[in-house]
Amino acid sequence: MNLIRFEHINLSCKNIDASRNFYQTLFPDWYVRAEGVFNGRRWIHFGDRQFYLALNDQNEQERVHHSYENIGINHVGFVIKDGEIMKKLLEDKGIEYYTMSAPETKHRIYVNDPDGNEIELVEYNQNYALK
């Protein structure tokens, strides 16, 4: 196989600063890796050394995809260290979330970013082999 790693997700944003602030809240260690303007629109690569979100300013556009109702990506999952700390952070920041359970996970937390993209935050059980 020629794959080295999964590197980035490219997201169009209604408000690029609101999106960056939202993801900064979830992942405080992330930083702006690169930024610029292309065809008159701002873009930001926001993440860490391994992975980033390519945020693109599309403030005149409207969302057309509805998760679980259309063909397309329904959510993006991130593995986290501590679900209890994440839930407290979300509550303190007034960010709505819901949870689900599964045998292999200690926490499965779902939030929507400012553009309606669903994010799953997963803390796996210690004994789960594929964590």
UniProtKB/TrEMBL annotation:
VOC domain: residues covered: 5-124
Superkingdom of this protein's organism: Bacteria
UniProt xrefs under SUPFAM superfamilies: Glyoxalase/Bleomycin resistance protein/Dihydroxybiphenyl dioxygenase
InterPro entries per the UniProt record, alphabetical: Fosfomycin_Res_Enzymes (IPR051332), Glyas_Bleomycin-R_OHBP_Dase (IPR029068), Glyas_Fos-R_dOase_dom (IPR004360), VOC_core (IPR037523)
Alphabetic keyword roster: Metal-binding
Molecular-function GO terms, alphabetical: metal ion binding
UniProt KW Metal-binding keyword: yes
Protein's name in the database: VOC family protein
Organism: Pelatocladus maniniholoensis HA4357-MV3
